[in-house]
């Protein structure tokens, strides 16, 4: 018989993402709607180990749905990779009466959730990362806002590049995943895009595209570079030296993590947070909420972590085919 859940904890872990507050709000209010108590854990697993645990009610999450970041704050906690600290985290949950836990974060956060589930804490993961790199789901909280933030910035950079007959390298976030870069390449009509998953170090190809564009009368050239490749400033210098075209690098950085979440990030995050609570109330544990084929679903964490994900080859080919110079 499934263990009845009386108190649900919620934490955000890893990098922050717009929409996390919408998920927190949904967890708190859905749990209270179902007659459960709620405790917020500040600063992720680090805060759990330090017992930074607060009581939450409906008013704790008032007026947060439009805010970026996470009101519970977040942190990375290398200690939590060790069994000693995983057991300590489980013991602290039991000490505070937390028998169900919602973890909002990425794959690393889910590994921690997996360990807590094995130690008797019913745990559900909710995918929160701007990188869209969680294999079990087609949507992750924050991606939609982050990619729109980047797109709008690149549009502005295109304007000034046109005024100066300039090449601009725009570095977007995505350490190991090129989803933001690829989507912006299509949305912004970039002439080149550098993706961690496909990077071949062929700078001469970029130089050739720039020169070809100049011959066709183009007065700007946008190169989108994923963070995982980086070195945008030095790349700009090499391209300028090879072509004679003024080339500037802009690193968008953490602005992509901030800002008011889009409608999609608010609605999807709220739906995922509520579904996580429903799963806990049904006695489920060691699950990850996801979105696939137009539906909100859930997977065993072990299964989810074993899945592989890659960029869409058609979208990669599309980004290349829609430029002027190919």
Which characteristics define this entry?
alpha/beta, 7-stranded mixed sheet, 4-stranded parallel sheet, 11 helices
Q: How many strand units?
A: 11
Biggest pleated-sheet summary = 7 strands, mixed
Radius of gyration: 22 Å
Question: By helix and strand content, what is the structural category?
Answer: alpha/beta
Helix content: 40-55%
Number of helices: 11
Mean residue pLDDT: 95
Head-to-tail CA distance between termini: 62 Å
Low-confidence stretches: none
Shape: elongated
**Element-by-element helix/strand order:** EHEHEHEHEHEHEHEHEHEEHH
- Biggest sheet strand line-up: 3-2-1-4-5-10-11
- What share of residues are in beta strands? 15-25%
Folded structure, characterized:
The protein has 326 residues and is an alpha/beta fold. The protein has helices spanning 20-33, 44-49, 83-95, 107-118, 143-163, 179-187, 203-215, 232-243, 263-281, 301-306, 313-321, and strands at residues 7-12, 37-41, 53-56, 100-105, 122-127, 166-172, 192-194, 220-226, 247-251, 287-292, 295-300. The strands form two sheets. The protein has a seven-stranded mixed sheet with strand order 3-2-1-4-5-10-11, with helices on both faces. Strands 7-8-6-9 form a four-stranded parallel sheet, sandwiched between helices. Strand 7 (192-194), helix 7 and strand 8 (220-226) form a beta-alpha-beta unit. Helix 6 packs parallel to helix 11 (313-321). It is elongated.
């Amino acid at each position: 018989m499934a263990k009845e859940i009386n108190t649900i904890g919620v934490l955000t872990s890893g990098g922050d993402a717009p929409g996390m507050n919408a998920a927190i709000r949904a967890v708190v209010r859905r749990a209270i709607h179902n007659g459960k108590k709620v405790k917020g854990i500040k600063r992720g697993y680090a805060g759990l180990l330090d017992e930074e645990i607060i009581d939450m009610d409906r008013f704790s999450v008032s007026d947060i749905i439009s805010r970026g970041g996470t009101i519970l704050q977040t942190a990375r906690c290398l200690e939590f990779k060790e069994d000693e600290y995983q057991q300590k985290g489980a013991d602290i949950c039991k000490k505070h009466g937390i028998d169900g836990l919602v973890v909002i974060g990425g794959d690393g956060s889910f590994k921690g959730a997996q360990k807590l589930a094995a130690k008797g804490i019913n745990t559900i993961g909710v995918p929160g990362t701007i990188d869209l790199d969680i294999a079990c789901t087609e949507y992750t909280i924050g991606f939609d806002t982050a990619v729109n933030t980047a797109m709008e910035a690149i549009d502005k950079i295109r304007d000034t590049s046109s005024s100066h007959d300039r090449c601009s390298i725009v570095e977007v976030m995505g350490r190991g995943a090129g989803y933001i870069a690829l989507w912006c390449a299509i949305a912004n009509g970039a002439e080149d895009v550098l993706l961690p998953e496909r990077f071949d170090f062929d700078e001469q190809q970029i130089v050739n595209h720039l020169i070809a564009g100049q011959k066709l009368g183009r007065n700007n050239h946008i190169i989108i570079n994923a963070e995982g490749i980086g070195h945008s400033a030095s790349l700009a210098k090499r391209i300028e030296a090879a072509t004679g075209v003024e080339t500037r690098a802009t690193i968008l950085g953490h602005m992509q993590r901030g800002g008011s979440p889009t409608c999609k990030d608010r609605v999807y995050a709220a739906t995922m947070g509520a579904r996580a609570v429903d799963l806990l109330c049904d006695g489920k544990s060691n699950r990850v909420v996801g979105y696939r084929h137009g539906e909100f679903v859930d997977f065993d964490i072990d299964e989810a972590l074993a899945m592989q994900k890659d960029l869409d080859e058609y979208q990669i080919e599309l980004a290349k085919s829609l430029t002027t110079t190919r």
